[in-house]
Amino acid sequence: xxxxxxxxxxxxxxxxxxxxxxxxxxxxxxxxxxxxxxxxxxxxxxxxxxxxxxxxxxxxxxxxxxxxxxxxxxxxxxxxxxxxxxxxxxxxxxxxxxxxxxxxxxxxxxxxxxxxxxxxxxxxxxxxxxxxxxxxxxxxxxxxxxxxxxxxxxxxxxxxxxxxxxxxxxxxxxxxxxxxxxxxxxxxxxxxxxxxxxxxxxxxxxxxxxxxxxxxxxxxxxxxxxxxxxxxxxxxxxxxxxxxxxxxxxxxxxxxxxxxxxxxxxxxxxxxxxxxxxxxxxxxxxxxxxxxxxxxxxxxxxxxxxxxxxxxxxxxxxxxxxxxxxxxxxxxxxxxxxxxxxxxxxxxxxxxxxxxxxxxxxxxxxxxxxxxxxxxxxxxxxxxxxxxxxxxxxxxxxxxxxxxxxxxxxxxxxxxxxxxxxxxxxxxxxxxxxxxxxxxxxxxxxxxxxxxxxxxxxxxxxxxxxxxxxxxxxxxxxxxxxxxxxxxxxxxxxxxxxxxxxxxxxxxxxxxxxxxxxxxxxxxxxxxxxxxxxxxxxxxxxxxxxxxxxxxxxxxxxxxxxxxxxxxxxxxxxxxxxxxxxxxxxxxxxxxxxxxxxxxxxxxxxxxxxxxxxxxxxxxxxxxxxxxxxxxxxxxxxxxxxxxxxxxxxxxxxxxxxxxxxxxxxxxxxxxxxxxxxxxxxxxxxxxxxxxxxxxxxxxxxxxxxxxxxxxxxxxxxxxxxxxxxxxxxxxxxxxxxxxxxxxxxxxxxxxxxxxxxxxxxxxxxxxxxxxxxxxxxxxxxxxxxxxxxxxxxxxxxxxxxxxxxxxxxxxxxxxx
Length: 817
Prior knowledge:
Blueprint: H1 4-15, H2 18-25, E1 38-45, H3 50-58, H4 63-70, E2 74-80, H5 87-96, E3 106-108, E4 115-117, H6 121-134, E5 143-145, E6 155-157, H7 165-171, H8 174-183, H9 185-211, H10 216-247, E7 251-256, H11 258-266, H12 271-275, H13 277-292, E8 298-304, E9 310-311, E10 313-314, H14 315-319, H15 323-330, E11 341-343, H16 347-350, H17 353-361, H18 376-381, E12 383-387, E13 391-395, H19 402-415, E14 420-424, E15 430-434, E16 437-440, H20 445-449, H21 456-467, E17 475-478, E18 487-488, E19 494-495, E20 505-511, E21 519-520, E22 526-529, H22 530-541, E23 574-580, H23 593-603, E24 607-615, H24 625-633, E25 636-645, E26 648-656, E27 660-669, E28 680-689, E29 692-700, H25 705-716, E30 730-735, H26 743-749, E31 753-754, H27 755-758, E32 778-782, E33 786-792, H28 797-802, E34 808-814
Parallel strand pairs: 1-7, 1-8, 2-22, 5-6, 5-7, 10-18, 11-12, 23-24, 29-30
Antiparallel strand pairs: 2-20, 3-4, 8-20, 9-19, 12-13, 13-17, 14-15, 14-17, 15-16, 21-22, 23-34, 24-26, 25-26, 27-28, 28-29, 30-32, 31-32, 33-34
Helix pairs in contact: 2-8, 2-10, 5-22, 9-10, 10-11, 10-13, 10-17, 23-24, 25-26
């Protein structure tokens, strides 16, 4: 039963929603009808490594995300950034499925000779246009906020690719600002207070930075940009994301930049960087709740980070020379002696790069410097050096022999203390030099990355691919070291872009409704990368539009070890779920079998007993729900139609990861129209599990006490449970429509065990109604052959919406004695 109060509450919430009032006054399109088509919100927390997320969760910095993770709403995975570990490269993979789209955040375009800086609109647009021509953009018809690329979005704001003057003028018309100010008056007061607090923190941070010999000009200039990125942009992003949800955009992608910018300045583990995460968590909560209350679409929300950051030492402080000056000395001998070395990273004039990034992002003209460009003559005759962060490229005016390249790599490492230099050697093979010696890839990967790199196999392949990029340098310099603290070639205490274990390890919180290809690291951990997110998101948003042939490189170099073998399944617990799915009609009236799949996936159930399953019914779009759910889970199933009205069926199903054999299905009691009683039945299957054969009976009892007593007696009789030998394990699952202290449960308890009462450290909980459970109606009974390992009841936002019942999931292990 769908609660009329729930629907009434949702209608009144829409009427008084400030977001909808803002949308109407700003002439946003709210014409999307009530629907249950899928929608997706992707929230990126820029630069937050998995390690730093785990610390923030433990420290209480992100309470909303922690609650969702603890309740099992998300799969909590690591996210491998690919190489280079920069936002332009990662977003190209997430938004277009294109790996290694750019060789660095800043590099030299060999064809034009221009310096490419990926937060400059011209180059972001060029790269984005090329990617859109070669791949299917993920955000077609959607929205893109605070990203590098628009990726096919019909609206993109504060994106490097589309941030032009017309865009800004449209956003800052006085009457629009006045409307927003009136309706969000108290929100603006809160933002102002936060901005003032952030200002004083920034001043204290500046004083601390000066005491630590940081760049004084950048420390002073960082105050307004810090407040703008950390507070103002975050709150602006909150409003834009909620407006897009109200409009029913099919896919929405927003990027939170505050943590990444502060981590660059003070380090990824600093208090100053972590302080802003609670504010980001609050925005995520607001957007999440708006998305899950949407009537326009059935939204899911992904939260992930594109990369992490390494705590770094500044190369210039360590060596008392910039990478440009180091290259000048290294190339003062040999074939290139006498050639001028031209550096494209003149931070003495421009200020540290973190400040310049903020000024470009916020379009602050004061203090912003243009990117240095090499002339045609310099390109022809000079050595060009560019290194924005811990990864740089050196472009040579003439082709050198492999021996000469090795010699210059040796000079840079041994004499100039560059941690790592890479170049393409004989037969195009990638060679490397670090303080430990000379190496070749892929066979010497451990000597370069270190033995504990979480994504060693993939990172080796990506590094080899990076060296083959047409705009990669003849020599690549990296601050990564597997023996000491990594270095960066600009003035920052946190850095990313190179090959380090932290900078390449972000995180991904994936709702179970979105099925992604999982990868396995050498230590067995599950992770995904950008192309997996791209494919999974596309399938979810565009289920009827398969991707065109997509070129990809999944091969891992053969000399790099792969993931270990999995454990023996016969020793693993059997995960059993019972779930009344209410014909896949959610508490909000939406028909979404995908939600049911999501809830089942959240428990990783091996066998699922479903009740109230439709087949070919008009009310549920003629779906064969048991088959749809089983196919989505890649499992086998058996369906029993308890009722059949001219081909429209309603009944029970068992879905199993293991082979199943149907034993029998039958009515327990017939329909009694005089007493308004439905036909009630049961089905019996045998599972062939790795631990042995298990009998499973699935049933759904009636609403009247007398019929429940009759149904119980039949199940306990010779045709059902009495037919199963005493030495064979059996499970009875179902919606019994009665409480745990009833005579029905007492009768069943004399033959079987209520697993909820045997589960360690678990108190049985109500299962109906899902939004506010008051009665326990759903049970798993087991024979004494089973040991109850654990029991859980998903209470995620999706589980509360998907049906009017909550499922019960038990982990059971067959006793060996």
